[in-house]
Amino acid sequence: MFEGEGKLLNLEVLQLWELPELESIGISFPCLQTLKIWNCPKMKQIEEILECTKGNLKTLWIAGDISLKTLYTSEFINLRTLKVESCLTLSNVSSSSLPPANIENMDIRYCEKLQTLFADSNSADYELRCLKKLHLEDLPMLESIGAALPPLEDLFVMDCEGLKI
């Protein structure tokens, strides 16, 4: 996708907006701290980008028309903020056995097929110990978070009829 790849090695913020033909990136960003993707309908996976961040990724924001069923399968130790909005094909946020250990803010809304946040984790054994803010809205299929919640500073849950907290 990019010419002059060497110049992008120090890139910390990548925003991909309304790229209807984009299927993949094909380049690594080892210093990437923030990734925002909005309305890239042919993108079916973002794992290649996430795996190359070498644990530096702090903010992941995905919204709009994108063909993902899961966001990631790896463990992200430094991820602090996760925002997912209007991803109509998403069924879970992660299929990793461990949810992000240092996540502080999660805002997930308008994902009609989302069933669980963390598919392969055992909620009885794992707590999102750093989580401070959780916003879940209009997730009609959501049944579980997949991890225990600590006491939160801010909890907002609306139109998530199947969720038991």
TrEMBL record:
Pfam families: LRR_RPS2 (PF23247). Keywords: Plant defense. The keyword Isomerase does not apply. InterPro entries: At4g27190-like_LRR, LRR_dom_sf, Plant_NBS-LRR. Residues 73-146 form the Disease resistance protein At4g27190-like leucine-rich repeats domain. This is NB-ARC domains-containing protein.
